[in-house]
């Protein structure tokens, strides 16, 4: 459930990721290749230079981890309101980077 209404995780992920490659420059996980139609992304970890290839399944698992961190109060984006899980919240590059970290590293390691 997102913002008091049910939304499929695939719909949310596609919406969040549609601009990440261009908007995510300078984040911990740099998108170096992408295919929006197939929901495939290749990221390079800016610290270790390790390469990760992720798709919808990895992003869905990462979203579950990410939402749990938000619910537990272990992630917030500079106190921006409304809350990440609220209707009308606009995800930014930091939120997308956190989602990608959860999808590749199993949690938020940077930032």
Please identify the oligomeric state.
single chain
Q: What would the average pLDDT be, to the nearest integer?
A: 83
List the strand order in the largest sheet. Answer: 1-2-3
Percent of sequence in beta strands: 15-25%
Give the terminus-to-terminus CA distance: 26 Å
How can the largest sheet be summarized?
A: 3 strands, antiparallel
User: Residue share in helices?
Assistant: 25-40%
- What count of helical segments does DSSP give? 4
Structural class: alpha+beta
Rounded radius of gyration (Å)? 13 Å
Number of DSSP E strands: 3
Unreliable stretches, pLDDT < 50, 5 or more residues?
A: 1-6
Q: What does the overall shape look like?
A: globular
Topology as a string of helices (H) and strands (E) = HHEEEHH
Summarize this structure as a short list of keywords or feature phrases:
single chain, 111 residues, alpha+beta, 3 strands, 38% helix
What do you see in this structure?
- A 3-stranded antiparallel β-sheet has the order 1-2-3.
- The two termini are 26 Å apart.
- The longest helix is centred in the middle third of the chain and has 16 residues, at 56-71.
- Helix content is 38%, strand content 15%.
- With 111 residues, the chain is of the alpha+beta class.
Which secondary structure elements does this structure contain, and how are they paired or packed?
Blueprint: H1 9-17, H2 20-23, E1 29-35, E2 40-45, E3 51-54, H3 56-71, H4 93-105
Antiparallel strand pairs: 1-2, 2-3
Outline of this structure?
With 111 residues, this protein is an alpha+beta fold.
